[in-house]
Specification:
This protein is 79% helix and 0% strand. It has helices at 3-18, 22-34, 36-58, 61-66, 69-92, 110-121, 124-137, 145-175, 182-204. The protein is globular, with a radius of gyration of 18 Å.
């Protein structure tokens, strides 16, 4: 894999990562509702999920899944149900996202890492996207295709993580002074619910 291919892939992924999409919406809503740390945690989970899809491509599993309609549909349905469950969990929670000096079990940031990871793993749209994008930058004659795939995967991970973190910091900074408002917190609660439900619908259709 030559430097021109790497640079071309870098700017392609950068443009795609910056463009507002489901992952960006999740990071923004999490950071606005809970704070910068939780938005960055969501960014970590979403970014690490890209390695899962990279591995599927490297070993040809993605192509197999796409050729089994019932399995592909099952992944979509399971992913959508998970997002709807997250929406229900937010709906049942207290309409308060004010940060505490001492974290409770509910406030653990690792939960957002896990949510972001599962959301990305169960999103067949990412699988389709990677399967369509990666072959454009792979040169079979350059040897070791798996290494080329993982190189592109790590580049995609780093770019996504940096971009998502910047979104998280910006969203947290813009809303920090409003988080003490009960009405604003209630609005943020419904923003999260709408985001999760919208992502579920997006995943299905």
């Amino acid at each position: 894999m030559n430097s021109e291919t790497v640079v071309s892939f870098f700017f392609t992924m950068l443009a795609l990562s910056v463009a507002p999409g489901p992952d960006v919406m999740y990071v923004l809503s999490t950071s606005i509702a809970k704070g910068k740390k939780y938005g960055i945690a969501a960014a970590i989970g979403l970014s690490c999920g890209l390695l899962f899809h990279t591995t599927l491509i490297a070993f040809g599993i993605s192509a197999i899944i796409l050729n089994i309609p019932w399995l592909f549909t099952g992944i979509k349905i399971f992913g959508a149900l998970y997002l709807l469950w997250l929406a229900y969990s937010v709906f049942k929670s207290d309409a308060s996202f004010q940060l505490k000096t001492k974290e409770t079990f509910v406030d653990k940031s690792w939960k957002n890492i896990f949510q972001g990871l599962i959301m990305n793993i169960l999103n067949p749209k990412v699988m389709l996207f990677f399967l369509a994008l990666f072959p454009t930058f792979i040169n079979a004659q350059a040897g070791n295709v798996k290494m080329q795939v993982y190189t592109l995967g790590f580049i995609a991970l780093i770019i996504a993580f940096v971009v998502f973190c910047l979104y998280a910091v910006l969203a947290s900074w813009l809303t920090k002074f409003l988080r003490e408002s009960t009405a604003f917190n209630l609005g943020l609660k419904w923003v999260q619910i709408i985001v999760f439900v919208s992502l579920a619908i997006f995943m299905l259709v």
